[in-house]
């Protein structure tokens, strides 16, 4: 099982490299010209479609920094606002400044992402 | 006014804690050189209605607001939350990905090209393309690699005015490449009926645009078959 998983990982290496490059390129574009975010958006959109085609799980940290609606990078204070809410279950609200869409990320005591669980890193 | 300035710079924004600074310098991290004012200005320009921007300055015109006025809370609307993604047609209508032709500069895209070079070095190390057999393998990799950020030249084309256009690729769609040339001009060249050249580690790879008509994201998972070359 472990062997096949390794081979699969190697086969997708180029896709991972491409995703890595596109994510960095999007950051660079936004840094270079904040007045036109179109290129940044296009790179993020391409990155997403590459990941979709190769059936790659993007890390939650990358996934959470992308607006689902307009494909914009969500940098707190620059392209997004993040506020903590404490009613009932605790969560953070991140709203995109470009299109106004909202993401909610819970962070309560018992909340755990799949990546943070030890089972995610063990070969099944 | 002098007091005001010191207030905003020193007291409002305190620096990072010394432990973070020392740790960052050990790792070789650099501060992001994005200027806050640029971001704010460009954001305001795009989002505010024209009559709220002052004529000469970039400031916003001021408006009096009564703080005592109570504002009704909006009810949480479920219907607006249901639809999260935009459809392709909506994206086209909103011009989400359309790059404006004005105010683009070649020098701004140069860092992107440097990043692309690093990425290509990672995908195809320059030591690996010494033998002719290895070049064949590299060709397969080039086809599946990212081209946005790379330097392309139009080698041959059915339309003579496209020939010789050279620049950094800003956008790759299914049917076109969008270049920015060294004279700060944005040019959109169709892939159909033209041949592009890509220089890498001293080798020149030719790309037949007519066989290359795939979306940028889907290209890496598509299988390319060898086809007879087309006459232009």
Describe the structure.
Chain B: Component of ribonuclease P, a ribonucleoprotein complex that generates mature tRNA molecules by cleaving their 5'-ends. Chain B: One of its GO terms (molecular function) is ribonuclease P RNA binding. Chain B: Keywords: Nucleus, tRNA processing. Chain B: InterPro entries: RNase_P/MRP_Rpp29-subunit, RNase_P/MRP_Rpp29_sf, Rof/RNase_P-like, Rpp29/RNP1. Chain B: It is found in: Nucleus, Nucleolus. The complex is a heterodimer of chains A (124) and B (232). By secondary structure, chain A is α+β, with helices and mostly antiparallel strands. Chain A contains 4 helices and 3 strands. Chain A has a 3-stranded antiparallel beta sheet, with no helix packed on it. Chain A is flat, with a radius of gyration of 17 Å. The N and C termini of chain A lie close together (8 Å). Residues 1-7 of chain A have low confidence and may be disordered. Chain B has 232 residues and is α+β, with helices and mostly antiparallel strands. Among the domains of chain B are: 17-52, no CATH class; 103-219, Roll (SH3 type barrels). Helix content of chain B is 33%, strand content 16%. Chain B has helices at residues 2-12, 18-27, 36-47, 78-82, 88-94, 106-123, 132-144, and strands at 151-157, 166-172, 176-181, 186-190, 194-200, 203-208. A 6-stranded antiparallel beta sheet of chain B has the order 4-3-2-1-5-6, sandwiched between helices. The model of chain B has no long low-confidence stretch (mean pLDDT 78). Chain A binds chain B through residues 14-15, 17-18, 20-22, 24-25, 28-36, 38-39, 41-43, 45-50, 52-54, 68-71, 78, 97, 101-102, and chain B through 32-34, 38-39, 42-43, 45-46, 81, 84-86, 95-100, 103-104, 108-109, 111-112, 115-116, 119, 122-123, 141, 144-146, 148-149, 170-171, 215-218, 220-221.
